[in-house]
Amino acid sequence: MTVSDTSRLVLDEPYARPILVDGARDLASITDRVCGVVERPTPPRAWYVAITITSCLTLMLFAMVGYLIATGVGVWGNNSPAFWGWDIVNFVFWVGIAHAGTLISAILFLLRQKWRTSINRAAEAMTLFAVCCAGLYPAVHVGRVWVAYWLFPVPNQMQMWPNFRSPLLWDVFAVSTYATVSLLFWYMGLLPDLATLRDRATSGLKRGLYGFFALGWCGSARHWQRFERAYLILAALATPLVLSVHSVVSFDFAVSQVPGWHTTIFPPYFVAGAIFSGFGMVVTTMVPARELFGLKELITLRHLENMNKVILATGSIVGLAYATEFFIAWYGGNPYERFVFLNRALGPYWWAYWLMIFCNVVAPQFLWIKKIRTNLLFMFVISIFVNIGMWLERFVIVVTSLTRDYIPSSWGYFKPTAVDVCTFVGTIGLFLTLFLLFCRFLPMVAIAEVKTILPAAHGHGAHGKHGGEGRPGREVSHG
Amino acid sequence: MSAPHTESAPRQGDQVLGPRAGRWATPALAVGVLGLAAALGLGWQRGDGFSRLQHSWLVACAFFLTLSLGGLFFVIIQHLTRAGWSVVVRRVAELVAANTAVVALLFAPLVLGVLLSNDGLYPWADAERVHGNPLLSAKAAFLDPRFFAARCIVYFAVWWLLGRWLLARSTEQDRVSGPEPTLALERRSAPAMAAFALSLNFAGFDLIMSVNPTWYSTIFGVYIFGGSVMSFFAAAVLALRFLQSRGFLTREVSVEHYHDLGKFLFAFVFFWGYIAFSQFMLIWYADLPEETFWFKTRMEGPWAAVSWVLLFGHFVLPFLGLLSRHAKRRLALLTLWAVWLLAMHAVDLFWLVMPSAETSGVLVSPMDLASFAAVGGFWIFSLLRLARGRSLLPVGDPRLPQSLAFENF
Amino acid sequence: MAERATNTGAGELHALLAEFDDVDAVSGAARALRDAGYRRFEVYSPFPIHGIERSMGLSPTRLPWIALGAGLTGTSLALFFQWWTNAVDYPFKISGKPLFGIPANIPVTFEFTVLLASFGAFFGMLILNRLPEHHRPVFENPRFRRATDDGFFLAVEVDDPRFDPRATRALLEQHTRRPLEECRDSGQTRELPGSVRAALVSVAALGLLPLAGVVWARSQDSSRPPIHVVNDMDSQPRYRAQAANPVFSDGRAMRSDALGTQAFGELPRPGTITTGKQGDAWTESFPVPVTPAFLARGRERFAIYCTPCHGQSGYGDGLVALRAAELQEQNWVQPSSLHDPLVRARPVGQLFDTVVNGVRTMPAYGRQIPREDAWAVVAYVRALQRSQNAAQADVPPTERAKLGAQ
Q1: pLDDT tens across A214-232, in order?
Q2: A268, A366, C136, C361 - which has most CB atoms within 10 Å?
Q3: C273 vs A: CB within 8 A
Q4: How many structural domains comprise chain B?
Q5: CATH architecture of the domain formed by A21-152+166-452
Q6: Does pTM top 0.90 for this prediction?
């Protein structure tokens, strides 16, 4: 649970680049450790317990979705004036979660933050699973799911085309592009590791399956050269993409004239919030996962601490955005805007607002204290707060504005139905089920990438010159 | 651990401007004084109670202020992330970041004008005008001359203190052998960043957005931030090229460092474009008259051309031009883009401020050039005074060897 | 999938395989081979070795250009497609936005650019690397499995013009202490086995079947009703207009208003204004004063209620009529031209009655158009008739002079 004293010394020593993994420091032991999780004949008992619970929840999700399709969207609590309810709240919540993966894989890669290598694979997988959960909502909320293909520009018998000027269609393109590019990025990173599993496989079936998906990867220098270039290009493309996705989601709200929705800071503020919530979820899942699968030496406390720093930073940005929004609502002088913001804090949803402020703005501030941000229990609790807070943020934005619009006669109070609640709980089940399956059957840590940060990856040519840790020129800006 | 950094560190004497700073400072001071005289003369001649001059002066002050603020951001984030690559270019950034006191002095007359109820620049400074306008009186509690002056003092105090503290600790590291100053910088950089973000965000509203007091945009502070950081990277490239052409930092700063600066320049060109598009598109789409009027004045008449120049000059062309790895590593090309983008940053600030003073006809006045010369001259003079006795390289920085050996992949 | 039989030494010599202890050794060997002029050799490692491409003398990859090309294709495709669908093929105005306004079309353009550029990078990488690859002779060496774990390998192919069994071996042995191995080509082809290929082709062919079915169905004319997998709202438990309903004594599903029903906001007013008659005859004069404002009102109502069938100028060429003519609807009755001499000869009272109560297939508008407005429509119809049948004498003398001058 604690990093050994010697490594702590190395970590905080500005004269040398820190060594990012503990214990396993040679190539073969990294392979063994990561592949061991996949290769062990039976997973830990806790895994069985967890997946039993989560698959029950997933089944509940399927039941709810089936009920919704058979009956109609009336089974949800959406009704005048709140035509958007938990469906859009949950959609934005899950899309937000999906942002950490690409941030870790792409942006931190471009910024040469090497500590990302231990966590990027799992975070990217979470991105995909969160996008699955998010994509479910727009697909089923159309009511007649069998015509959901109308969202895409497919030639059809009505001789109509979708309206490309609508932010809802931008959403379709943004989320589907994001899902596709994330999948490619994740799969490409998996290729060398699948080849490793293939070459270690003991049974023909495993070798066949891993071999099929490894596409015949052999680790030749020519392959690596193009692989690295493709990785860099995908990272460079994914960086603006990740900005665009949550910006487009924010456009759904901000292009409208609804008070509390139409404000220009929404795009960057949503992106910051998405990263915040995504890192919250990564900490929530990685803290137990690294215990469960014995990966504490690869996913060290230092990694978790760095993530907590990102949570603190993005949480503070979100707080600043709240303050700016509140201030400009007053400064703009528009009485409707002023009312909506006062109503958020003092109206019928005051509890959601203040809980959100506590979870998103106050709770992360505890991470200023090193003792707290390196304590597993505290960071786990705070990350749970972050998850709750970011869900509430979307709830506050969607519901408070819709239930108090321009005409007081149409004001209302949104109440979710049992189907709403069960569907949301079900998506959590789906997310965790997919994550547990991923942990069991695929390498949770990017084996080849972690190897590149070991001293062995840099040869001995430059060894010993600068504090004994390889070629320092490549080891840059570690946070 | 021993201090291996002493091995390859260059001798300190190589990297101090010394008397040469004085030789360059004198013409800068002369330009400043002449610019000031010309600006005042032209402003007097105009006979509009210095209203037009105040606008020019604000643009010029904002331009050099944003350079410093961009530098401040850069220095803080380097400490925050414990970056190694940037050590060789960091002192230049620290000097730029610490150079805010001169802007505070130059900006003071505008604040004084506000306190004296001169509404030539900030229409809300005149109590009678505010009283007659319900939109203005609604926010009179905030746009109050004395409160405004107090906020300005706080902003400049925060920036000045941050800049001086970062510079002082960093130069202290040049002299001492242990890593304590660096560790202190790392520890305090997080709260420093918080102070920076808060002050920049609200200063954007106060100094520039309130020139149009009925208009508002929540993203405005972020917009100013994007332009500031971009302009800083452009200025850093130019400053390093200048110093290298005079024989400083020639062995230390390599094409690898320029490549990284170029990457950040490119990234912030994109970031600026993203923020500018977000602001424009949301207002264009929602089409609310209380917001669109600000863009309408900038998209019709003579200002339309300036808007197009910004779209292409500040975003499309540099984006395409800096996309390639080769463009960032070919120094002549990178320098060209740096000059171009600095000019575009000036156009950007001009476009933000000036439409409230110039609604038709000729947009640029000799006053603008004179104000630029004045503020620029004094700013460079003060920068050289700061730099004179200090090493241009953080010779004692524990990560200097990493920065010297830095290589892009 | 790579099949790995142990290297039995059978088959032709393919390459000389050397294993190295670390990155430096393998890079050194690669440099030595490069300097000796070798080209057909390959380094295998479990992770990318920094700078190995320079050590081997590889040229930079074309991948960025492929990604750039794909991205630009995405940009132009997205812009063209949005313009064509929303501004040309299916134009409709919505929320006051231009049919093709760049700000609203940027998000989709951006996403599509990124999507295609990513495809370019990913699939370009696969294609340039010739992946998926079924087999390589080096896979047949059991030691080679460690190339994805912790082994660093270098294979010099015998096809290299510089290859010399003894000299090459000596060169490699300078850089590694481990024994070299001969990598033989057992004749396993790099191509996919025939069975796998057949399976892939048949899956692809089967995948095309549904599409072919759709194309076939869409190209057929059929008089049968479409198959409804899901009924949506196509069949609902309700009576259609004009259908029969045995519940009512008159057998009609549509019910008429109860006797004495009045339109909202209008009280019954006896006399000409309601009936259009003076005594038993149609009135020839208007029961309300005709003013320019009244005519303007009539014109506006006419545009709303009458133009769909009768057309802007009243010739019976409204959009509905044109559409019906285009479709050659058999039951369609061409709307009358208001300039037909018969219609022009009718008294205003009768025109009023036509508006209010309908005639032949023209429905009654009395429930939609208040009486005053119906008179305004009639007044406008009269004006329209006059304008379309004007003589030169109708033009005021001053204007007539101008006409002559032209």
Answers
A1: 999 999 999 999 999 999 9
A2: A268
A3: no
A4: 1
A5: Up-down Bundle (1.20)
A6: no
